[in-house]
């Protein structure tokens, strides 16, 4: 085994540790919401900002990662993100008020906004193009297994200790990741002449922040009629539209939107957005479906997500290997079709569906996610050229965040409006909820199927789109 291979493996382990601790923290902290409501005598809406503020801060930070990594280096800002996450975890554990916890969560969101988009670029910098699929699959295993075990870890810590333990549990892995990062990560090339796009930063930050904050704070269709919700939502979308126009005119854009002119990258982002809407949509719909319609308790509902996460984690390395070969597009298309069929199956289930059948459908969702997401992302990032991977990764992540937030809000509004309409027509509450949820599952299945032809347009062999070729092509595009 060569020294270069050993160095690449150390980089992979380092990035896995960082990504794992962020993913584990988020999924485990969900369980603390009822406890935080009790301890701080707060409402559900107030405590929900523990999750919402993290997502908003992360979404507002992500557009910066391309510029920061290009100007000062990926290693520096990835490690900065890790240090911030460690500090924020300590602050959260020491919190004596809800406001203090919210500040810690916002800082964790900033840290995640730096770390997550730079995870794959760091791996890509260490591994050759022909082996990136399989190592990305290993990265996907860690990222997907963390949410699977997070609720169990969080529940165990809450039983044995207190909510502070959910912040303290981040420290050992974060410290190990920092030590490994300082020893193993190498600084890449920098472009000190690259200028900061201040106008673009202000527009995209306020735009993303306004959209995510407004969508995250909506709890019913009536919220759309309140200026406190629709004003920031409308303003956010307006600022994002202006941002797109500005970025096409400046010589050093904050986000190189011209990369969307590269077909494999464009297709990979659209596929990722469709998968994100379906994934986060199910996080909203399935608990309602399991508890209101099927009559299962909260513990059973939580365990129902375990087959999805486990199968996605198991399939990711296998799918990554396929992404390096001639079956890449077929793996992605097959994953999307399996995801859509699982959603159609959920829509077709009536009252009192057996747990074994629900488990099979949820596991099928995991198979579809494992094959349908990471290989497409790997192909898309390979197509833009190594110099622009950080930019492309940030845009992929930002697109998924915005798409999933918008999709979840629309699904929630549809559920409330549809159940109210059916109830007004004399349909019973349980039947109305089942009808609304079945329609939502079918809409998500249709969205996935619409994205499937995009998978068939992806290159199925790395020789079809080489990094060197597309790097030159992307440079030409950016100069137009």
Automatic annotation (TrEMBL):
The chain crosses the membrane at residues 48-68, 80-103, 109-127, 139-158, 164-184, 196-215, 227-246, 267-290, 302-319, 331-349, 355-377, 398-414, 434-456. It is found in: Cell membrane. Keywords: Cell membrane, Membrane, Transmembrane, Transmembrane helix, Transport. NCBIfam families: efflux_EmrB. Coiled coil: none annotated. Pfam families: MFS_1 (PF07690). The keyword Cell membrane applies. PANTHER family: MAJOR FACILITATOR SUPERFAMILY MULTIDRUG TRANSPORTER MFSC (PTHR42718:SF9). The keyword Membrane applies. Its main location: membrane. PROSITE patterns: MFS. It comes from the Bacteria. InterPro entries: EmrB-like, MFS, MFS_dom, MFS_trans_sf. Belongs to the major facilitator superfamily. EmrB family. Residues 11-463 form the Major facilitator superfamily (MFS) profile domain. It is a multi-pass membrane protein. This is Multidrug efflux MFS transporter.
